[in-house]
Each structure stands twice: as C-alpha cells, then as structure tokens.
C-alpha cells in the first residue's frame, strides 16, 4: 500500500454564474512505475494512481487515465464552467484499490 | 558597404545591451498567496554596508515561472514537505514519548524562532543552527535518535519552521558570545578555496547579477533556505548548498554541520539581516 498519500485541491471559493474557473489538484504519491528494480534485481511492483475524476453536482467534468510514466506527486490543472453553486468532488483511484476523495464547495457571487 | 557595416554594428550593440539587461535582478514584488508581501530587497545591514548598498533575495535573480511558483503555496513543491513535517511535529517519538508539539505547542507558535538562527546556545557554549537545536531536542528531551544533518526528516522540519516565519525579517545576533564565531565565518567568506581560487565574495559580492555560464549569480543570501531546487526536485539545506559551492571551486569541502559551515551560516545569514524569511523558497 502506498504511504503518505494526501490529496490537495485548489478551487476558488466563489465565481460568477457561467464563469470558467481554473482548478488545481495534486496528490502526493510515489507513482512507482513497475519498471524499476531494487538492489537485489527484483522488480519493484507497480503502484500508481491509475484514474482521476472530477464531478460537479453529480455531472462529470474530467475523467483521466494515468499511466506508469507519470512522475511522483501528479499535478493536474484544468478548467470548469460553473453554471450554479454546488460542490466539486474529486476522486483518485490507487492501484492497491484505495480510493482518495476530496470535495470543495463553490458559491455564486 | 559602409551602410551594411553600420547596420551590423548597431545590431551587435543592441544585442549586448539586451544581454546586459537580462542579467540584472528583476524589479518585482513577492506576495505569497496574494496576501503576504515579503521583503526581497532592503538597505544593507551596517556590517556589510561598506561592500553592498542593498541586500537582495535570490528570488529576484530567478525566472518568471520560478518566481511565480514560490508565490503560491499550492504551486510551491516545497510545501508538500512542510506538510509532511507538520505530521512529524505532532507525532510522539523516542523514549520519552513526546512530540515537538507537547513542549512547543502548534508549529505556528514558533514563528519567532527561525529569524534568529544560527544563535548562541548558553548550555552548549557554542552557536547552534536550527538543525543542531532540533537534534538537541530529539536527543535530550525526546530520547529519540538524532537525524542526519542534511537528511530528509531534518530538512523537512527546518522547512516547516521557516514556513511559519515567512514575512518576519532575518535578525541574527552578531555581537555578544556569537561574535567570535561570526568573525570566523567572515574569514571563511573571504577566503579563496580550491583550484579555481574562488571565495564566496568573488561570485556573490563582486559579481552578483552577472551570468556564471548559464546561471544567474545572486548575492548568495540564505533567507530562502531550505530551498526547493527544480534541478534535484527536493529541499536543500544551506549547508548542502555551501558544500556544492565549495566543491565547485574544486576544493575538498567542509562537511554539513561542521563548525566551519556553522560559522559561515551565521555570517551569511547576518548579511541578509532585514530580508524576510522565505523558506521553503523555489530556485532552479
């Protein structure tokens, strides 16, 4: 199981209705590719975040497949249109079956 | 033909001016998270006013993207390590079963600490760096194993203690019992080392603002340490940086944590008295 995994998200607290906002996400994760060997020559098993999703009020914003060549602490930045007040829900899926979740509310000004 | 020569001459002149302008520190203001403005240039403290008019943070010598990265805690990769240290701060360790927080309270209560280090320690009768103070706590109060001077745990913890002090001016004491150590540090700063026979001052006092091959020479201030370097993607302590610099003069270096580097750290820190604590800063 991956250790020290911690999701972080940055979403503006409020936006005008219909505005496009920038969302930044980062999860601390070692992203072991499965292609490296340890000192004894044994393959270090793959352990990565393989999927990331973001939903807004139940509607999908992005759904990303992550591959083994992505570096430690994957950082994803994307834009979303905010038609109404609500909640962004972020989900990261780990190879080991763990699911990490984070959510942020946004208000309409 | 004459016209062509004139045009060529003008072109070369323009090129030289552009290159010269690029090497100057930028005129920019460092505001962290759009709310806290840090002092990145200020009048030189008295003891260096004979050689410098103004002291400047290394932040002013870095590129636009690197500067922006430090201005937002989310984008600053060093803050990941600060968060890891925050967990360690609150976790008991050693035979006494105590955490840092058990004696010191919240890490944010430690804001007054970083700006005054390195600092004279009465009990040990020598100048202590942050790292020495942390290991003293671990060994004598927590009954825990000492950390390696430039190890990950150590540099993370110093990053946490620097992060809570951001915005406060560096203010190390150079008089009183610390004075002799400070003078040793000054001696080292001006001593040429290695096959290249370079002292700290040759680059960071005489030539800051110029390019050293592809890199932009700063004043070598350490107010931003520990610093996240993009080239090795981790936090770097001041002593690790000193070691790198001395090595680059092609000398056998002192070790991180050695009395020589402790003295040098005190002296270099004192040259930045008045600049804001910036750690963990972002540099290339």
UniProtKB/TrEMBL annotation, chain A:
Sulphur oxidation protein SoxZ domain segment(s): 10-104
A Pfam family assignment: SoxZ
Top-level division of the source organism's lineage: Bacteria
Name of the protein this chain belongs to: Sulfur-oxidizing protein SoxZ
Lineage, top ranks: Bacteria, Pseudomonadati, Pseudomonadota, Alphaproteobacteria, Rhodobacterales
